[in-house]
Amino acid sequence: MVLVNYFLGLRIDQADSVRNKKIYLISGIIVNLGALVYFKYWNFLLANLVLLFSSVHIDISFPYMEILLPLGLSYYVFQFLGYLVDVYWKHEKAEKDLLRFGLFIFFFPRIPVGPIERAGNFLPQLATTIQFEKSNIIEGGKRIVWGLFKKLVVADRIAIFQSAVMSTQEQQSGITILFATILYTFQVYADFSGYTDIALGTARLFGFNLMENFKRPLLAKNMGEFWRRWHISLSSWVNDYVFTPLAFRHRSWGIGGVFYALTLSFLIIGLWHGSNWNYLLFGLLQAVALMYEYSTRRMRKKLSKRISPLIYNNLSILFTFLYISFSLIIFRTNSFSGASNLIQSIFTHPGHLFYDTPATLLFILIGCLIIIMYDIQSEFKIFRFSLFNNKSWVIQQVSFALLIIYILLAAVFDGGQFIYLAF
């Protein structure tokens, strides 16, 4: 795939007509999406084709294949596609150095879980001379430590609680399932952004700067803002290469063109996560929320002027967080019925909050509190005194030393893999 996309990029760049450029671009799209569909969606498509035929009383069967999903396929396929489109639009020149192009795709820290890097950000860095710099080691090391804290202390410890609750869902109270639902949002955030911190920190050790993938998404005031802060490399990719071209092309449809572009964009985001209908429903829920926000933007702007900004903003953050938490129920279950039963259990199962031990619950709450307080301080600068970003070198080092000690005390070292490795 590296060889094919390398040569297609050169052909697009050197083509003497728009028609030939388009032929090479379409060829690249077919090759890349063909690989993605074969490895990731083939059995899903066959299963639904069988259901379609059976609905009209035609019995048909296809051989299902046990296909190993190549590591990081979804990420580098989108990276290939973005590169070819950028060359086609003349936003970037085709890379002539094959080894440099290969490193752009397979730069090791970001292979498994991204971010989906852009050619304009990373290829120029590969053309510079890399030198040892003490500041890169320090800043990269700090970023790795922070990522390890998110993954080992917060995400993996919540995962133990999640596993205990979900394996005995029928016996759990509604308050316990609600608590687990809210914690799952923190788990996904800590797990995915934790990997991103480790990847960005590792790249920084060698003098490279990967694009940021998260910008304090749990403090978003609406869903549009959330998707500008969450999985930024994916959401911005879909915005640049799907939503904006579609909305522009169908601008004569008015608001219908915007809604059409939104729906298709978020169905792609949903399907990108996996070959299951629940991922498509997850994407559709995001599109519905964004369509509501687009339709009511004037009304909400008037309302914000009548209410205290402090109250309005905090309520907006709360409602956005709750919507994300409930939409992630669809994200985490394997079927619509499973999601429906989980939501129903929240409102119909009386009882007390379940937790294994007070120490486990305390470690979880402290971990979540540290993450949210760090994000609040980074976002609003409400505290004059800061630990990890303090101007004093000594306070910074002591803070990270204490964080390492806390990781050693509270971490789960036999936890599972990163959640987004499955995608």
Give the key terms:
423 residues; 2 domains; 71% helix; 16 helices; mainly alpha; globular
How would you sum up this structure, described in words?
There is one protein chain. The chain has helices at 2-14, 18-55, 73-88, 98-106, 119-126, 134-167, 174-205, 223-229, 232-249, 255-272, 277-295, 297-306, 309-332, 336-348, 358-380, 393-410. It is mainly α and 423 residues long. The chain contains 16 helices and no strands. The chain is globular.
Short description:
The protein is mainly α and 423 residues long. It contains 16 helices and no strands.
Biggest pleated sheet = none
Report the structural category: mainly alpha
Bin the strand percentage: under 5%
Radius of gyration: 23 Å
Task: Furnish the topology, listing elements before pairings.
Elements (H helix, E strand, L loop, with lengths): L1 H13 L3 H38 L17 H16 L9 H9 L12 H8 L7 H34 L6 H32 L17 H7 L2 H18 L5 H18 L4 H19 L1 H10 L2 H24 L3 H13 L9 H23 L12 H18 L13
